[in-house]
Amino acid sequence: DGGITQSPKYLFRKEGQNVTLSCEQNLNHDAMYWYRQDPGQGLRLIYYSQIVNDFQKGDIAEGYSVSREKKESFPLTVTSAQKNPTAFYLCASSIVATGLQPQHFGDGTRLSIL
Amino acid sequence: AQKITQTQPGMFVQEKEAVTLDCTYDTSDQSYGLFWYKQPSSGEMIFLIYQGSYDEQNATEGRYSLNFQKARKSANLVISASQLGDSAMYFCAMRASSGGSNYKLTFGKGTLLTVNP
Q1: Could you tell me what percent of chain A has a pLDDT over 90?
Q2: Are A33 and A103 in contact, with CB atoms under 8 Å apart?
Q3: Which of A51, A94, B24, B53 has the largest count of CB atoms under 10 Å?
Q4: Residue A102 has what DSSP assignment?
């Protein structure tokens, strides 16, 4: 089945620690995205990537980093500089970054502070 | 800038009845897309339906239909014959096709739908 796989489902971070969230897609989509969701809120864009080896900051990129070395993979690192990382993180992909195609989402990763 | 407003924090509906979830939007773009997503308590975001700004007919997908009123800038989701499995958070979202933010979805704050047996 084609889809987007996020792992782990739950993640705990200690103070001062970097953690990496995985996102893999087998939809052959060019564009991939990372969103953050806080309780009772909609989604906010952290980073997006239109093609391999290219990525751009979204609305709330501070304290996060990404890489796009392969078309299928777009990992997100939550660095120690992100002071309030507790949230639900959703990865998405679309055929291309521009245009009006829908974005399809993974099942998400819940990140908490220990 | 784009903005999505969902004025109903929560809605209740009896099983097998229809329900309308409200969504209004604001944009200066002429070409844009409107989307509805369902988020169950498990967290995944499920794409339901899409309406393009130039589409003359309202979109339908099974029990979901989108009541698109362009002049009023509204894009309400109608769910017919509600089922218990429809209980979830529903998000309206927009994507513009021009300008500097055409890559992202702008989301509303969502409406929590509860279907009662």
Answers
A1: 75
A2: yes
A3: A94
A4: P
Strands A19-25 and A76-78, by their bridges, are: antiparallel
Q: Are the beta carbons of A112 and A22 closer than 8 angstroms?
A: no
B24 to each of B3, B9, B50, B59, B103, how far by Cα in Å? 8, 14, 15, 16, 20
Q: Report how many Cβ contacts below 8 Å link chain A to chain B.
A: 63
Average pLDDT over residues A25-47: 92
Q: pLDDT, tens digit, for every residue of A57-102?
A: 999 999 999 999 999 999 999 998 888 999 999 999 998 766 778 8
How many Å lie between the alpha carbon of B15 and the closest alpha carbon of chain A?
Answer: 25
> B56 Cβ partners below 8 Å, 6+ apart?
none
Closest CB to A100 among B97, B107, B109:
B97
